């Protein structure tokens, strides 16, 4: 028995199979009516995210606080710009992360704000790894 569409829209947890997401690719799913980006980060993206000086970030947060331990290759963020609520575009901008074309906010491959008017990093939704290839959001 699966929950109906109204229950899912109200916030029921969703499971996402990560198997078909190739390295360097991301997908967008919806949870509670919000776009959720799931990015399978490359080693280069992970190294870049981990090597950023926290003092250079408007909203300092280490990459390790934005991913699950042992699953550094997976970034899961709510795809809503923290400036005015637009939906940023993945793999755009100067930091190989997300770019919001509405007002120019740019986020890095960890979803942290790096440039533009957005005041905060992209939010990380509550999620857990059900297995190495499946997550539950919510």
Automatic annotation (TrEMBL):
A GO term, aspect molecular function: metal ion binding
Protein's membrane topology: Single-pass membrane protein
Subunit: The main subunits of complex b-c1 are: cytochrome b, cytochrome c1 and the Rieske protein.
Protein name, UniProt field: Ubiquinol-cytochrome c reductase iron-sulfur subunit
EC nos: 7.1.1.8
Recorded catalytic activity of this chain's protein: a quinol + 2 Fe(III)-[cytochrome c](out) = a quinone + 2 Fe(II)-[cytochrome c](out) + 2 H(+)(out)
Cofactor note: Binds 1 [2Fe-2S] cluster per subunit.
Cellular localisation: Cell membrane
Function according to Swiss-Prot or TrEMBL: Component of the ubiquinol-cytochrome c reductase complex (complex III or cytochrome b-c1 complex), which is a respiratory chain that generates an electrochemical potential coupled to ATP synthesis.
Domain (Rieske) ranges: 49-136
């Amino acid at each position: 028995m699966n929950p109906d569409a109204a229950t899912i829209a109200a916030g029921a947890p969703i499971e996402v199979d990560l198997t078909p997401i190739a390295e360097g690719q991301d997908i967008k799913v919806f949870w509670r009516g919000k776009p959720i980006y799931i990015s399978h980060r490359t080693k280069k993206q992970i190294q870049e995210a981990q090597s950023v000086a926290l003092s250079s970030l408007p909203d300092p947060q280490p990459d390790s606080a934005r991913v699950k331990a042992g699953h550094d290759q997976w970034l899961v963020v709510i795809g809503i710009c923290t400036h005015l609520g637009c939906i940023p575009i993945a793999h755009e901008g100067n930091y190989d992360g997300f770019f919001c074309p509405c007002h120019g906010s740019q986020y890095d491959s960890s979803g942290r704000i790096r440039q533009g008017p957005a005041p905060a990093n992209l939010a990380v939704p509550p999620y857990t790894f059900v297995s190495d290839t499946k997550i539950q959001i919510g």
